[in-house]
Each structure stands twice: as C-alpha cells, then as structure tokens.
C-alpha cells in the first residue's frame, strides 16, 4: 500500500530484549561461512557509536516538532539505545571469538570526528540516508533466508533489530522535513540526494575494508578474500544487489520511507517479542 507520509496509525514500540548473554559465540557463527560472518560482524562494530550519532542528529531538531513526531523521536531514541546495548554485547562476543576489532572501531571514531564541527542539518541528512540503509537491510532480513543455518540466538537478535528499524524508518526523514520546512523542494532533494551518494560510497568502502580486516585474521587474503566478498555482495546471497531497487527509490520525486508500507513484515516477526513490549508511542 503506497503512502505519502508516515501512517497515522503507526506505533513505534520499543521491545526490551537481551540476546546471547553467556553464549559461547562461534567464530564463524553464520552457518560456518567466514564471509557472511565478516559482513555482519563488520556492520555490527559500527552500531554502538553510529546509533548514538543518529540519536543526537534527530534530537537536535525535536524542538517545535509536531506532537506525534516528538513522541516518535522519543520512541526512536529508546529503540536505538537498546540496539546499541545489544550490539555492544554482540561485539564483545566477536572479540571473545578471537577477532581484533580495534582498527574497525578506530575507523568509526575517525568518521564521527569529522562530523563534530559540521552543521547539524547535514548530520541529520547523513542520518536520514543511513536510516534508509538500515530499513532496506531490515526488510531484506525479514523477507529472506539470509540467516538460515546461523546461530539461532544471533539470528534472532538481527531479526529483532530489523523489526524496529522498519518501524521507525520514517522518523529521521520526517524530522528532516520538519527541520527544512522553509527550504524549497529542489534544495531538499539536492541535499539529500548528494548526501546519499556520499554515504553510499563511504558505507560500502568501509564494509569491504572491515570485511578484509576480519578475513585477514582468518587467513583469508588476496583474490580469495575479494572474490568471496564480491560473491556475497553481488552474487549469492547478493546483499548489495538486492538493495538496488529500494536505493534508487530514494532519489525519486515524492519519496518517503513509508511509500512502501511493509508493516506486514513486522507482524510476521513480532509474536516472539510480546513479553518484552514497552509502552508504545502512537
């Protein structure tokens, strides 16, 4: 069902779950696949600091927001705080499995340092683009079998994260529309389109660099590493290739994250979280 804005009946509901406490995490927890494991491990390293950046970027423009958006920003913040907590725990298990992730963490820190003196509206544009990435990947996770054969507890953590990324996928965009309400439509489109192109370049360069770093620690280097990464991203399962249609949609006139209402994916996955639901935000 197409939407031109966030559905009026949407509720953003933080689900307070904890995963993997006491779990002896396998080194190649993704069905014994070092490539798939490296992809998600490298992605997870970015989340604790990255999601703190998302929170601050959105909260910077909450003053004067319509009441519904203000409530959604609060719920978004609660969800992102819990995501960060669970990825801190997951990342600790990655290091316990024998990986040195300090270089990856340093790259995240360096990237965020570059935002320190940048106008807040540009940080919000970065957040909006990255939130579209997380929403695209969340839908892909919930639709498919990417975690088939993965450690069940870890797979469940990624699905839980995916559910909430879909649920709050419009918050950064709606905050952007509020913050730029005095801009022309052309200026809005130009800034968000340019920022998406820059974010996309940085996102995939960093993912490949992170995967190479982790694979090197597994003794997988050179052509074997590059071929494995290319196969995983473009061939099978093709996590980059599958994102292309939704990525292109971001540049279309009239784009809104809720132009595609995929709450059905949430309903399919949500039954496991009933006991962990916190008070919802309408």
Question: Spans of 5+ residues with little confidence (pLDDT < 50)?
Answer: none
Determine the strand fraction and express it as a percent band.
under 5%
Question: What CATH architecture do you see?
Answer: Up-down Bundle
Number of helices: 10
* CA(first)-CA(last) distance: 20 Å
Structural class: mainly alpha
Fill in the CATH topology. Answer: Ferritin
Roughly how many Å is the radius of gyration? 18 Å
What's the mean pLDDT score?
Answer: 93
Annotation, overall tally of beta strands: 0
Shape: globular
Question: How many domains make up the coordinates?
Answer: 1
Q: Report the order of strands and helices.
A: HHHHHHHHHH
Helix content: 55-70%
Report the major sheet.
Answer: none
CATH level 1 name: Mainly Alpha
């Amino acid at each position: 069902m197409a939407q031109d804005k966030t559905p009026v009946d949407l509720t953003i509901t933080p689900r307070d779950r904890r995963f993997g406490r006491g779990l002896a995490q396998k080194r190649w927890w993704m069905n014994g696949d070092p490539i798939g494991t490296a992809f998600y491990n490298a992605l997870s390293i970015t989340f604790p600091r990255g999601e703190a950046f998302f929170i601050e970027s959105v909260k910077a423009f909450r003053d004067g927001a319509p009441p519904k958006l203000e409530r959604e920003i609060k719920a978004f913040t609660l969800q992102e705080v819990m995501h960060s907590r669970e990825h801190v725990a997951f990342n600790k298990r990655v290091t316990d499995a024998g990986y040195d992730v300090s270089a990856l963490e340093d790259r995240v820190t360096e990237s965020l340092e570059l935002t320190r003196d940048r106008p807040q509206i540009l940080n919000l544009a970065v957040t909006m683009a990255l939130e579209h990435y997380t929403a695209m990947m969340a839908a892909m996770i919930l639709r498919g079998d990417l975690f088939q054969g993965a450690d069940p507890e870890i797979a469940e953590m990624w699905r839980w994260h995916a559910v909430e990324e879909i649920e709050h996928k419009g918050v950064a965009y709606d905050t952007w529309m509020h913050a730029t309400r005095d801009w022309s439509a052309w200026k809005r489109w130009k800034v968000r389109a340019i920022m998406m192109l820059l974010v996309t370049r940085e996102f995939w360069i960093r993912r490949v660099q992170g995967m190479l770093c982790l694979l090197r620690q597994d003794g997988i280097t050179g052509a074997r590493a590059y071929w494995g990464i290319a196969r995983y991203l473009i061939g099978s399962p093709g996590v980059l290739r599958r994102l292309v249609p939704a990525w292109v949609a971001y540049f279309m006139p009239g784009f809104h994250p809720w132009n595609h209402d995929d709450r059905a994916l949430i309903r399919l996955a949500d039954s496991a979280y009933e006991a962990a639901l916190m008070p919802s935000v309408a």
